[in-house]
Write a structure and sequence with these properties.
Structural class: alpha+beta
CATH superfamily of the largest domain: Histidine kinase-like ATPase, C-terminal domain
Strand order of the largest sheet: 2-1-5-4-3
Helix content: 40-55%
Largest sheet: 5 strands, antiparallel
CATH topology of the largest domain: Heat Shock Protein 90
Oligomer: single chain
CATH architecture of the largest domain: 2-Layer Sandwich
Number of domains: 3
Shape: elongated
Order of helices and strands: HEEHHHHEEEHHEHEEHEEHHEEE
Number of helices: 11
Number of strands: 13
Distance between the termini: 95 Å
Length: about 375
């Protein structure tokens, strides 16, 4: 009898030990997930926080474990921005019963919030937070490519139908010009020709955005390319009360890129002109608009940046910046940056942007380097 009780006791101890091992195993998995995990029990008390969630909150786990939501919102170590996000998550997932919610943090990263509750949770609320910025970027790139493909089909079907009559109209206006000048209507001719040329420029930009020609590559030193851009834009900058500063000293003269010079120059000129438009009277404390063009070597690539001290852009504008037809300029076509995106991608490079309202904008272009022997 005693031996049976002893065996039963040992079996119970093994079972308890096994359950504890399983529990420790799963807790260890939760601790090391790349997603933030937080668990509120049925009484609304925070019962579990994993390492990643502690990092996201910016406070030690011990300081928040056992807190209610109200106490969490009063925690001195959690920033005001994060507290506002916690309230929003609570409102969307608990109050409105949404099991999935997305938000963007102060650094522009995208997060997916998932709420799990119900009978299987026995009254507990499990919240997971995962960084989905890379997935969003992939999604945005796919969306961008779809738009560019659609743009190509549209442009191929209508470009010639528009350009041919414009060419004819321009020719007839030129023939009629002497008669109109005789009638004192030379100003009308000038305006008509200017508007026809503007329409042709828009069509050219439209065609380029859908399918830029294949790069006709030649070797050019990075510094030489940037110096040419500065020479082409400094007079316009001076007229707008803006200073362009070139900083390419970190890149050796022998460091060259194999690119279609015309296309890459078009991209950089477009970015500099956008910077000039963005400054447009918004100067720093010394009353001067500033554009800084710089280049630096990063491994086997060169990083070209164009920074300005203009008005900057909000997150909505940044999210749509490279989409065809998206523009914040009155009279703009919304094609310049989508063309630039395609050109840089065709050269095996990348183009990105960082901006903040009131703090200016920085565009970053990365292109592969080619070393030229001296």
């Amino acid at each position: 009898m005693l031996s049976e009780i002893h065996r039963a006791g040992l079996q119970d101890m093994r079972l308890v030990h096994h359950k504890q091992l399983v529990r420790n195993k799963y807790e260890n998995i939760l601790e090391n997930l790349d997603s933030g995990i937080i668990l509120f029990d049925s009484d609304g008390v925070l019962a579990f926080v994993n390492v990643q969630m502690s990092r996201l909150l910016g406070v030690p786990r011990k300081s928040v474990t056992g807190c209610t939501l109200t106490q969490l919102l009063r925690h001195p170590g959690i920033t005001r921005f994060k507290k506002k996000k916690i309230i929003r998550i609570f409102r969307e997932t608990v109050f409105h019963r949404k099991k999935f919610h997305e938000l963007v943090d102060e650094y522009g990263r995208s997060w997916l919030i998932t709420m799990t509750y119900g009978d299987q949770m026995e009254g507990d609320f499990l919240i997971s937070v995962k960084d989905v910025s890379e997935f969003k970027q992939i999604e945005q790139t796919a969306y961008q490519n779809d738009k560019l493909a659609m743009l190509g089909k549209i442009s191929a079907s209508i470009a010639h139908e528009i350009r041919n009559p414009l060419t004819s109209i321009r020719g007839f206006i030129q023939l009629l010009r002497p008669h109109l000048i005789h009638l004192g209507k030379d100003e009308y001719v000038r305006i008509i020709l200017m508007e026809i040329d503007r329409a042709n420029d828009i069509i050219y930009e439209f065609l380029n955005s859908s399918k830029p020609s294949a790069p006709q590559t030649t070797l050019i030193p990075v510094r030489s390319l940037l110096k040419e851009v500065v020479l082409l834009t400094e007079s316009e900058a001076l007229m707008k009360g803006c200073q362009i500063e070139l900083r390419a000293g970190e890149v050796e003269e022998a460091c060259s890129i194999s690119v279609d010079v015309k296309q890459i120059k078009q991209v950089i000129l477009n970015l500099v002109k956008n910077a000039l438009d963005a400054i447009d009277g918004k100067h720093d404390h010394d009353g001067q608009g500033r554009i800084e063009i710089s280049a630096s070597r990063i491994g086997e690539q060169v990083n070209i940046t164009i920074s300005d001290n203009g008005g900057g852009m909000d997150q909505h504008t940044l999210n749509h910046l490279f989409n065809p037809f998206f523009t914040t300029k009155e009279g703009g076509t919304g094609l310049g940056l989508s063309v630039s995106y395609r050109i840089i991608r065709n050269h095996g490079g990348t183009i990105g942007v960082e901006s903040q309202v009131g703090a200016g904008t920085t565009f970053m272009i990365t292109l592969p380097l080619i070393h030229v022997a001296k």
